[in-house]
Amino acid sequence: MVEAFRSLWGMGPDWETVFPLLKQQGFVGVEASIKDTQYPSPRFFNLLAENDLKWICGLYTSWTDYEGPCESISVDQHVKNFKSQVEILKSVPVKPIHVNCHSGSDEFSQEEAETYFNAVLEIQAESEFTYSHETHRGLVS
Prior knowledge:
Blueprint: E1 5-7, H1 15-24, E2 29-33, H2 34-37, H3 43-50, E3 54-60, H4 75-89, E4 98-102, H5 110-125, E5 131-134
Parallel strand pairs: 1-2, 2-3, 3-4, 4-5
Helix pairs in contact: 4-5
């Protein structure tokens, strides 16, 4: 069975209008980052439940929600950012059905990329979620 999800990126927080409309259009859920959910506010999660929508969490290790300039940060900081968001996910009232990670950096060397992914794979192995990683996060100029 095919399930269609809609990213909330660029839609704004008028979820009382948007969520019922998405459901009516046949979407089964939304993709939104922790920042998008405005957690710890329960509003996003209540509206998911009211509209019978699922949630895919977007997780960012830098360049949060594509706002501001792309950050050039260390592999260690990417790993810390990943781990801190996974910890937050453990406490949200509605668990995501999947975590889509915008992770790492195109400017990583092969060795740095291997270090990063080995570290996050260990974190993932200890959590209850499934993950995918988008690796085209842009270069710092």
